[in-house]
Amino acid sequence: xxxxxxxxxxxxxxxxxxxxxxxxxxxxxxxxxxxxxxxxxxxxxxxxxxxxxxxxxxxxxxxxxxxxxxxxxxxxxxxxxxxxxxxxxxxxxxxxxxxxxxxxxxxxxxxxxxxxxxxxxxxxxxxxxxxxxxxxxxxxxxxxxxxxxxxxxxxxxxxxxxxxxxxxxxxxxxxxxxxxxxxxxxxxxxxxxxxxxxxxxxxxxxxxxxxxxxxxxxxxxxxxxxxxxxxxxxxxxxxxxxxxxxxxxxxxxxxxxxxxxxxxxxxxxxxxxxxxxxxxxxxxxxxxxxxxxxxxxxxxxxxxxxxxxxxxxxxxxxxxxxxxxxxxxxxxxxxxxxxxxxxxxxxxxxxxxxxxxxxxxxxxxxxxxxxxxxxxxxxxxxxxxxxxxxxxxxxxxxxxxxxxxxx
Length: 407
Description:
By secondary structure, this protein is of the alpha/beta class. The protein has helices spanning 12-19, 45-54, 69-83, 99-110, 128-136, 161-166, 185-198, 221-227, 242-245, 260-273, 279-289, 293-313, 345-357, 389-406; strands spanning 32-33, 93-96, 119-123, 140-144, 146-147, 153-154, 167-173, 201-205, 236-241, 254-258, 327-331, 359-360, 362-363, 380-384. The strands form 4 sheets. A 7-stranded mixed β-sheet has the order 2-10-9-8-7-3-4, with helices on both faces.
C-alpha cells in the first residue's frame, strides 16, 4: 500500500461517529442534525428536467474530459455575469466532478515531491481535503495561523519567509469554511505579491460564493486578479460548484477556471485519472449555470434562517452573522472546558447537546489541527443551517435551552 495513506487523519465525520458511539439521545425529541454541510433545500426544477431529458440517449458514449463546448461556454458566461471577468472557455475552463474531487486532483498536478521541502500552505481551521491532498502528493502541510479576534482571518504574516520559499501550492477558501469570512482585495494583493515572489500556485476554493448576507456579493479570486491588472490569472485557479449554489450535492458538478498554463496539465492529469463528467450531468449543469432565479430564491431562504436563528443564539454563545456560507461558527461557554476528562470543551458540548436535546453539531477542533501548540478550532462548534427554517429554529431553541441549563 502507498505508505502516505498512513499519514491521513480520520475525516471529521468519522471522528464525530466515534465521539457519539456511546451517546444515547433523548427518544422523545426528533433528531436534528446541524453537523454536515449538506444542502437540504429542493433542487431546482429546471435542472431536474434537463437531467431527465438528457438521459434519453445521453449515456451511450464516453464523455470527453474537457467537457462539451456548450458547458464551458455556460461556465464562462456565468463568470462574466457574476464577476465581470472574461475567460477563454477553451483554454481557461475545465468542468469537474465537484470542487472536492478537483481540489484534491489539482494538488497532485501541481506538487513536485522530488523537490526537497515541498510545502502546501492553507488556513487553520480548514477543509480536510487540503491536508489530504498535500500529504498524498508528497508535500508537507503548513497550517497558517488565524486570529479569533478578527473572525479567524488568516494571519499570512505569521508564515515564515523560509516556508513561503518552499511553498508550491496555497489553498484559500473565501467565503471560508467554517467561519464564512470573505477575503478583501488587500488580502488578495498580499497573496499575489507572495506568489510572484516565490512562484507558488494559488487554489481558490469558492464553493460558498452564492450564499451571502451582505448587500455586496463576495469578491472572487479571478475578480480580485482582474481588478489588480492580472488578467492572465497567472498561477491562479478558482474552484466552484453547483452543490451549494443549486442544492445538488449529489450531482457532483463544478468547474475550475484560471491560468491556461495550469489548465493544460490539469486536463492531462484528469484524462488519465478518469475525471470526465457524464453527458447528462453536463446538460443539467448548463441549465443550472444559466439560471439565477433559483439561486436568488435559495439565498433568500438562507437569509431568513440566519435572521431567525442568529439572534436566538447571540445572547448565549460567542456567535455572529457571518459574511457568507451557511455555517454559524460559535464559541462554547467556558463551563464546558473541564466537563469531561480527556474531552475538549467543544467535544463535551456536542456530546451533552446530543444526549439531552438530540441536536448534532460538529466540534470545531475537528476542523483544525494543533499547530505551534494551539488548535484554533478548540472551544468552538460549527452549525450548518441547511435544513428547513422550522427545523433550524427548533434546533436553535433547543441549543439555547441547553446552554441556559448547563452553562
